[in-house]
Amino acid sequence: MGYCTVCVVSAFLLTVIKAMNKTYKPPKNPQKDKSDILLAKVEKRRSEISLRWGEERFTDLIDPQLRERYIEMCNKFDAVKAGTNYLSIQTMAEGMLRAYDKCEENIRQRGHDVLNGEIWAFTYEGIRFLVVKDKAYMPRALAMSKKEGCTDSMWHIKELLKLIPKDSFVFTDAIKSKFPGAEVIEPTTIEDVKNVGPITPFLG
Q: Which end of the chain is more exposed for a tag (fewer CB within 10 A), N or C?
């Protein structure tokens, strides 16, 4: 094999190796890209709504007839958003954005107030709560609750803290201080453990 032949073969092999090392890029899918952008917009809008009104409270404050249409729209969106029918995803996502705008306008027209960071709204175990950061805001929260008629229970933070046994609070506070971001979850019951079944390191 001559010198030139060796050079040609080496150059060819080098080209092949470079091509193999290139990161694989899937073919472009404009419809998927557009769907992803719209889904991100819906999620951003949902987060904004939740911060301003409280996610469940937002739904409660909408005019009843409009609320039914809003819930129907949410269900349609949830049914398609994880799929691959990108045209349907785009249609439903655009519909959700319009629904958020119309419903928020409706709530404002009905005279309801946004949450101000001192009053929080959420639903737990089917119970609709208003929680205030400081007891001084209780009168405002009470007035808001009476006006809206969609609150089951109202608390301020110190009340909730008083419900935690001292030893549990000290332990939990120590864990949260040591591991920022640690979260309190529902305790595991004996029934939960039984449902998991036997635990073994040999899973293969």
A: C
